[in-house]
Amino acid sequence: MSTKRFRLTARREAESLEEPVEEANELAKKLGLEPYPVNYWVVDHDEMNQLIAYGGFQRRYPHWRWGMTYDRQRKQDQFGMGKAFEIVNNDNPSHAFLQESNSLADQKAVITHVEAHADFFRNNEWFGLFVGDTELDAAAMLERHGEAIQSYMEDPEIDREEVEKFIDAALCLEDTIDQHRTLADALDGRDRVQPEDLRKRLEEMDISADVRKQVFDEEWLDDFAEAEAEAAKLDQPRKDVLAFVREHGMRYDEEEGRAVEMEPWQKDVLDMLRTEAYYFAAQKMTKVMNEGWAAYWESLMMGEEQFAGTDEFITYADHQARVLGSPGLNPYKLGKELWEYVENTTNRAEVADKLLRVKGVTWRNFHEVIDFEEVSERIQPDPAIDAVRAETLDDLAAFDEDDPRIDWETLDAARSGADVDVDRYPWKVLTYEGLAERHFSLVKPQNRGFLRRIRRSELEQLSRYMFDDEQYDTVEAALADVDYAAGWDRMREIRESHNDVTFLDAFLTQEFVTDNNYFTYEFTRSTDQFRVASVDYQDVKKKLLLQFTNFGKPTIAVYDGNFRNRNELLLGHQYNGIMLDAEEAKGVLERLYDIWGRPVNLMTIVKEFDEHEVEVARRRNREPVPTEVGKRIRYDGAAFETYDLDPELEERIQATDIDYDTKPDEWLS
Predict the structure, then answer these.
(1) What are the residue ranges spanned by the domains of the chain?
(2) pLDDT at 658 > cutoff 60
(3) DSSP secondary structure code for residue 404 in this structure
(4) What would the DSSP string read from start to end of 155-223?
(5) Which ranges carry the SpoVR protein-like N-terminal domain (predicted)?
């Protein structure tokens, strides 16, 4: 009975949302978005927690991790530590799940948020890496994987615990992929085939001792093994550890006391888990961009375009405040602020470009001769576009009949008495160009001083390649040519090509850091406390980039698959000034041994402090300087051993200055 009641509630909720879904999609397209089709589903809070645990999908492979995630989410929801309003997956069509207990204002906010996510999924090239030219059907793929792994667990010839143990080992490596390449390109054969152990093959051939001594003497075998090992050495570290293990990994057979070939089911499971790791990589790589993009368009649609009704606005404002106000590194807040900064700087450059083409205006005298109050007044949207209502439609009709800002077909329908609720949805009678003028960022109260703050260096840069610099006689004439859509057009270009690392690198400036009060903090060993370290944008950028490079995880790569000609695996931590958690690293090596079948090694660098130096530094209120020492941790299936690292290998794992797995000259750690 209870289930029927809940299903009836969900059905009624779904029916009430049909209009908001249809209108939100139309508004999103008017604003220049191109979302995947979205199927919306209404679920109760327990179903929502299950979906969150499964990463937004209804069917996944059986594993304890889903139950753990579900329990954490359920408790978080139960004790008011954060409510999940929705979840949407990257698929074509996308599927969005709305919680039936949400208020109508919350549901509208979620729907507008989802439409922007679906646009990002469809148009960002990092998501396109996974599908290429094929059609995306992630739900079906994940369901197939779930069914296949379930069948292995139910196979009487396969120990279920072995399957679970194998999945645990593979999941320890799920982020050790080459996320900047496609799933297929990562298997490009940069590594060479493992050399065959010729001594072992000779033993299996049962060759007589005399023949073996005459043809295959020990010196020749040693020389052959050395040459083969050199030929098999990786030319470059290989980031796709999962692929390397899939190609060359074995399993340790306790009965035989040696490593043997993987079972077919093990290779199949590795293939599936690696494919899923590549599918989810784009979401991890664009968390700030994607959530910021969705938060930006949601805010514009719900607030500025009044998709939230007057009786819903307070509820929506509370909803938005909770999302943007959550503590810690908040991708919604950081992303939204960066997108707004991109929009503002692009619009500022567009206006400044026009003003610099006015006779008598140069980059040197710009701030002295420009009347910024006049500029602010002249870039205001046309009153007929800014305040569209049913009673003002005649004002729009008086525009030139080819004016690109007006949706003439809808306007004619509305004036003819058709069912077009202009008071509720004023955007229906405007085009993309009209909406761009209506929401031009530089006229918003919070941005009124943004044009005035433009630096002379930026003005000089704009003027450098400007040939037609006396195009206009007056400021009025120049501003009449402003492209109000410049900011939105630029945002869509960036949305197509960037990920979080490149986004932060390109657009996080000193102006942004100052305006939004960002700073770095660090733990000081001398005082055992945290303190503000810097407000310089370069330092803030370094800190943030560290959190987003390689999903915020240490970068680990394969350096040798036949280390010291013993078929041992040699991994390297690409050290960027941040030490590994030693215990976690050992735990991963234990699991990795299960799917390599032979000893595994991990190179890293540790910081060692002299206790006397620490005490002296504490007295002098400064930080002690550590000594960085290369170490190699080896696990043979039974015990760990730690060795000093060869200088040549230590040099190889030191990060360079060409990417963000780097160790900056003055790192704030």
Answers:
(1) 2-124+286-324, 332-498, 524-653
(2) no
(3) T
(4) -TTS-HHHHHHHHHHHHTTTT-S-TTS-TTGGGS--SPPPPP-HHHHHHHHT--HHHHHHHS-HHHHHH
(5) 13-354, 485-552
Q: Is the pLDDT of residue 666 over 80?
A: no
pLDDT of residue 184: 78
> Which residues, including other chains, have CB under 8 Å from residue 254's CB and lie 6 or more apart?
none
pTM of the model: 0.87
Alpha-carbon distance of 30 to 435, in angstroms, equals 8
- Round to whole Å and give the CA distance between 560 and 232: 8
Question: pLDDT digit string (tens) for 405-453?
Answer: 999 999 999 999 888 999 999 999 999 999 999 999 999 999 989 999 9
CB-based contacts of 480: which residues, under 8 Å, 6+ apart?
none
| Average pLDDT rounded to a whole number, residues 339-351 | 98
Number of neighbouring beta carbons within 10 Å of residue 279: 21
- Asked whether 57 and 91 are in contact (CB, 8 A), the reply is no
Please compute, for residue 356, the number of CA atoms within 13 A of its CA located in the half-sphere on the CB side.
24
Q: Is the pLDDT of residue 657 over 60?
A: no
Q: CA dihedral defined by 412, 415, 416, 419, rounded to 10 degrees?
A: 100
CA dihedral 10, 15, 20, 23 (to 10 degrees): 140
pLDDT class of 3 with cuts at 50, 70, 90: very low
Residues 6+ positions from 303 with CB-CB distance below 8 Å: 313, 316, 317, 320
Mean pLDDT over 343-361 rounds to 97
The one-letter amino acid at 121: F
Q: Determine the straight-line distance between the first and last CA of the chain, rounded to whole angstroms.
A: 58
Count of beta carbons in the 10 Å neighbourhood of residue 150: 14
Q: How far apart are CA 435 and CA 410, in angstroms?
A: 15
The neighbour count for residue 577, using CB atoms within 10 Å, is 17
Q: Which two tokens stand for residue 357?
A: 């083409």
Q: Residue 4 pLDDT more than 50?
A: no
Compute the residue count for the chain. 669
- Whole-angstrom CA distances from 537 to 115, 420, 510, 546 are 33, 49, 5, 14
Taking the C-alpha atoms of residue 1 and residue 4, their distance in angstroms, rounded to an integer, is 5
